[in-house]
């Protein structure tokens, strides 16, 4: 239950941040374009609106989106990986290298998150604020430890699932959420054949 809520929260945050940043950029561009046009009444009104903060806010939103999106990528298996050498190894050694890689990712992101917390703690005791929005900089950089620790958790989660089931999360680019499709008989036959061969190896 908690994991499902975390999964949905991750997706909702990414969707909100991406949509809001895109909309904000669109509004800022239209505002800048129309402000340069000599339209009576409209130009005067638009010049009274100050949207200089929009670019800064969008940058911060994209940073948070990227950090949370990296954790989402680990969970769903959409990160790019080069596995040519891994795939030619025997099943036993392949499993060991995959587990090592996942644990190394967890250690690295855990270290980054810890250094991020130390950095935030130092910023918290300063009066540094952002240029346009005047937000406390510790709040702006909070996405670094949050995203890194979330990514660390996802590495450990995928590692546990791999040890338990021997399978990775693989994205299905042809699947659309909410739409049920019939099973492709050819794909089902190939999958069944792979399962038979894997069973024969063990």
Summarize the structure.
72% of the residues lie in helices and 0% in strands. The protein is mainly α and 202 residues long.
Description:
The chain has 202 residues and is an all-alpha fold. It has one domain (2-170). 72% of the residues lie in helices and 0% in strands. The protein has eight helices and no strands. Helix 1 (2-35) packs antiparallel against helix 3 (54-76), helix 3 packs parallel to helix 7 (143-165) and helix 5 packs antiparallel against helix 7. The longest helix is centred in the N-terminal third of the chain and has 34 residues, at 2-35. The chain is elongated. The mean pLDDT is 87.
Strand and helix map with partners:
Layout: H1 2-35, H2 42-48, H3 54-76, H4 84-87, H5 91-124, H6 137-140, H7 143-165, H8 185-201
Biggest sheet layout: none
How confident is the prediction overall: mean pLDDT? 87
Please report the total strand number as a whole number: 0
Low-confidence parts lasting 5 or more residues at pLDDT below 50? none
**Percent of residues in helical segments?**
over 70%
Secondary-structure-derived class: mainly alpha
- How many structural domains in the coordinates? 1
Q: What is the 3D shape?
A: elongated
Give the topology string: H per helix, E per strand: HHHHHHHH
What percent strand?
under 5%
